Amino acid sequence: MVKYKEIANTIKQRIIDGTYEAGKPFPDQHGLAEEFETSRMTIQKALEILRYEGFIYSVRGSGTFVKKNADTLSKLDSKADEYIGLTKQMAGTGTVTSKVLSFTIRFPNEIECESLQILPSQPVYDIRRLRFLNADPLLLEHTVMPIHVIPGITEEVLAGSIYDYIETRLKLGIGAANRMIGADKPNKDDEEYLRCQIDDPVLEVDQVVFLDNGVAFEYSQTRRRYDKGHIVMVNLNKKKDR
After folding, report:
1. Residue 48 in contact with residue 107, Cβ under 8 Å?
2. In this predicted model, which residue has the larger pLDDT, 8 or 79?
3. Does 53 reside within a domain?
4. pLDDT for 85-96, tens place per residue?
5. Boundary of a domain, candidates 37, 72, 107
């Protein structure tokens, strides 16, 4: 993750836990730059993310302040360009646990071969998990991973964080992802595992995730109830005056 996004996440956590109180002046950019050992430009980018997400606001001549409703903002939201894994995303929010619904090894189909850039003869893990936050069903995952790219996945690994296993045990860096986000009607699994009502919309995310060396390692679909968080898009490119 790039520096300014890491700083934005750290500052956001401080806002949520009350380190920076609502309505009180925010630390100045020079002080933050010294603390995080970076430039003021990097701090400005981090603060701009928090401003777009609604955590802070600025008053000309007075400084930057935390919004009064910042501590009530949804902690379930995830960034459209964030690929850090659910456990790390929810750190400080609650306890993430997993129930393995199925775990098999098989050969990939045509779509999986194309998405993961692998051969039909290269086996993959087929993983279905139900993820919980504080024992409350949060999302359903169906994940396909090439064994030769991510070796050694076991039931024990699946009970925790796959991304932590990849980064900590395999020493691999996680890079970018291609995501397709849409809405769907609940199916029988959504009703059973996510406790959806028949008329509850479901947020569906299909993605291919790459290691930082450009190798595809995950082809997955996640489904969550409409009231269990959003996908947040932050665009820092400002429009020119017309």
Report:
1. no
2. 8
3. yes
4. 666 665 556 688
5. 72
Determine phi and psi for 4, rounding to 5 degrees: -65, -30
pTM here is: 0.63
CATH of the domain at 201: 3.40.1410.10
Q: Taking 90 as the threshold, does the pLDDT of residue 52 lie above it?
A: no
Q: Which residues of 42-52 are buried (b: 16+ CB within 10 A; e: fewer)?
A: bbebbbbbbbe
- Determine the 3-state secondary structure of 8 from DSSP: helix
Does a structural domain hold residue 237? no
CA 73 to chain centre: 16
What's the full length of the chain, in residues?
242
* Amino acid identity for residue 228 in this structure: K
What are the φ and ψ backbone dihedral angles of 153, each rounded to 5 degrees? Answer: -70, 130
Q: Residue 239 falls within a domain, yes or no?
A: no
Residue 17 lies in a domain: yes
Mean pLDDT, all residues of the chain: 84
